[in-house]
Amino acid sequence: MIAGLLFLAFAFFAVAQAATVRNGGQTAADAAALGAAEDDRRQFFDGFLDAVEAARGWQDWLAAGTPLTGDGCGAAAHFADRNRSDLLTCDPVTRDGDLGYRVGIETRFDTGRTIVPGADNRTAKATATAVLRPRCVADGPDDGTGDDGTEGGGSEENGTGTGGDSTGGGTGDGSDDSDDSEGSDGNSAEEIRLRCDGEDLTIDPEHGGRDLKPSDLFSVVLVE
After folding, report:
1. Measuring CA to CA, which residue among 28, 194, 5, 45 is closest to residue 132?
2. Rounded distance, CA 128 to CA 33, Å?
């Protein structure tokens, strides 16, 4: 009787240990996939800030549509290792238009010795997929055209003013109006207005987005 109870106790312990190894393996896989996607997020974020400073092409970075040269799978291997696991596979994937990674890992920790036949020293394998999702879109007129086209926005109004001046012959007044128009347009075009998950976000390029975090512009989530 006592021997039977002891056997059941050890058997339950073996099952619990196997479940712990499986859960630890899934945690390692999740961390590896998220780490890979977060590495891409950092690159998109840095590229966005550089494009804002250059006043051109930031929409492609904001939409996560620019090719990257980073090492997302290297980041996946790093996070797998931190969770005492080895990265077996790492593949870029797309889910509903969102870029990400699917990874596979195997744990370096195991169940140890058990009294359950065939359950000794069993490791666990697990897979996970994580994607990066842009959170923001340009709010109002196309700011990219305005950025490159700060002059473009000003030239529309300048053209109107110049036309009025040429017909009216008021060259001096026209140039004054044109200067004022360019100044006001230039100031408004400097601000980039975004809509992020229903919230307004305004970026002043003069500050270089110093108050921004990657998570303000992009989310990283696990998917099936």
Report:
1. 45
2. 6
